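Subject: for your reference before the review

Hello V.,

The reviewers asked for a structural picture of the protein, and I figured it would be easier to keep everything in one thread rather than splitting it across files. Below is the amino acid sequence we used in the manuscript, unchanged from the supplementary table.
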Amino acid sequence: MKPKLSSRQRIIRYIVAFWHAYEYPPTMGEIAAAMDFNSIEAVRYHIKALRAAGAITWQEGHSRTIRLVS
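And here is what came back from the structure prediction:
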């Protein structure tokens, strides 16, 4: 049985898959829709935590600025 991924792990995987498919990062709305979150604020909460952990960079208030940190 595969271990269940956390919301943040799922978001990272989605960002990677989206980037490979379109060659630019997803918006908060696209992430919310893909993750079945009820609000963009839920996505923003996780994105801020991922940025604080050093997993991504992101400029709040700007569209499509999420970047994975190598």
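For the response letter, the relevant points are probably these. The chain has one domain: 7-68. Residues 7-68 form a domain with the Arc Repressor Mutant, subunit A fold (CATH 1.10.10.10).

Happy to draft the paragraph if you're swamped.

O.
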